[in-house]
Model the fold of this input.
Amino acid sequence: MQINMVTALNSALELGMRENENVVLLGEDIGRDGGVFRVTDGLMDKFGEKRVIDTPLAESGIMGTAIGMAIGGLHPVPEAQFAGFMFLGFSQLVNHAARYRSRSRSTIQLPMVVRTPVSGGVRTLEHHSESPETYYAHMGGLIVVEPSTPYDAKGLMIKALRMNDPVIFLEPTKLYRLFKQEVPDEAYEVPIGKASVVREGSALTIVTYGTMVPVVKDVVAKKNLDAEIIDLRTINPLDEDAILASVKKTGRVVIAHEASLSFGVGAEISARIAEKAIFELDAPIVRVGSPSMPYPFPGYEKFYVPNALKVSQAIDKVMEA
Amino acid sequence: MQVFILETSVFSGEVKYLQVIDENGNADPARFPNDIDDAKIAEMYKNMLYARAFDAKVLSLQRQGRAVTYAPLLGEEATQIGSASAMRKDDLFVPAFRQHGVYIVRGIPLEYMFIYWRGYEEGNAYPKNVGGTPIAVPVATQMPHAAGLAFAQRYAGKDAVVVAYVGDGGTSEGDFYEAMNFAGVWRAPLVIIIENNEWAISVPRKNQTASQTLAQKAFAAGIPCVQVDGNDVVAVYKATKEAIENAKYGPTVIECMTYRMGIHTTADDPTKYRPDADVEIWKARDPILRIRKYLEAKGLWNDELDKKTLDEHAKAIDAAVEKAEQFKEDPTVMFKHVYSFVPQVLQNELDDALKNNFWQGEEGGE
Ligand SMILES: Cc1ncc(C[n+]2csc(CCOP(=O)(O)OP(=O)(O)O)c2C)c(N)n1
Ligand SMILES: [Mg+2]
Done:
């Protein structure tokens, strides 16, 4: 069926709940209201208030109780209503979710999927447009995924719900309803830790993920370029092999993400390429990201979020070098 | 269920409820504050009308695409106007995100609010003498700031009091408890207004906490508390005034029982979770209506005065909208307010953006 990312995620959660009776959802406004983006719409009616829990308004409580539920044998799916508010539960995620396995030498495992909408471009208030992937990826111990298509969203969610690790599941708000795609009704997995080559090419490699994927695709199509586009899908653990293989083929690299440039995912990728494939490069690496400052109020976001023109210019720079 | 029946009692608490003017506009003489006259009540009434008119204006601008997502205050005017009207000139306020009425009473030039709701930080750059902090979007995170700000007043030898606002949902956050606890330990000059409007988006008050009242949360921090009719502007005024006077001895928590008569924000659809009939019940308790009745019964108000006031407000609001719409965005400004100086990395990013006109061209834009 042709569905958007919201419907794909809703379907994945429903299938996951049918498959494993220990999967429970918890968060603010996820039940009766169906979530502010309707990702969990209808699930309370289908599974009851015992498994779809409208919690009090407290993110540290949501993340912390989810950890306890996981220790107690459940597979919780806590939601932070927006990534900016997940920071109120940050301590629980980095101090505990990321470390329970290593501190207990795997005698305690935390199967849980932490969902939150991320990134901007949709004119929302302060704290509703954050791209926080680096914070969670930097720590180690937390898997960080970010789909850019309905198909990947569903497959990654199914996979995450079958894993025995805490997965930070980042859902780009802007892509929730941007387009529909053919998605199977039944459960299927998209592997975690594997990037997807969304377009093969030999002129240059563009590594991207999240909101920048459709932007990059458009630019490449318009420029009629033989570019190879890699959608990371999983940010941590990074699919280094896929990136290096492509770089060896093309010798030119652009890395594009919406998060601010400094100390971002692009810096990590660029460093790995420099360490392992610098002699394969025909041009310096170019990164595209937001300026090194907090996400602005909506009036300024069009000057902040990298757009097609910025990507296009970065490609020109790499191709001309 | 009763437990520990035989043990000795070491603590018991009681939460009192205050109402001065009832739904029909009848005042309770025993509870009527002695520092308030009818002129003050009329002024608060006008400010409630002003706040409601402002609210309606932003909503209509939002519908036309001229304002961003907005959280209306409809129904909560008495809580905001009553508490803000009790503040003295140098007192400070710390709002959440719905307290537009407080800004209005404190005298923020309205155009700043319209600039804010157009989506620009410049809306927060209002004159310092307004004495408030900007809107805090992450729920309850402003509360520890309020406790610290109150501490700083005492530290500087000022007698200013901080009045902080938090929603019923906000009282579930750790920051709320931590702020109360710090203020209690420090005996900080802080008044916490819990604007209990019965809803936190789709979650009703009864599912937010098993606690019978929100006010009683203050007991755990050793702070006095009271619950008031949050749709009675005089009761809210009275409770806040007393708390401010008492602030030299420490903080107070005031739970104002009001109701969110409208949507949570312009992005919300309450028909998903709230029967319209519930809203009807609260229409009879409208905070504006009862004061109108009170003033009319005393011969202090009539249709003509009402119309004149509404006209004045409409003019002031339209003028402010016009001013706000003259505001021109300047993206270079973003780079100049990140630190007290512009580091080289940021300067390079700015130079690059300027060289490329912020990538606002054919292929770019939105
Ligand atoms: C920390 C945090 N979590 C979630 C949100 C999303 N959100 C915005 S308002 C709101 C409900 C707030 O309820 P309440 O405190 O009662 O204030 P009200 O909206 O009723 O004024 C929620 C969940 C947020 N802004 N901040
Ligand atoms: Mg509320």
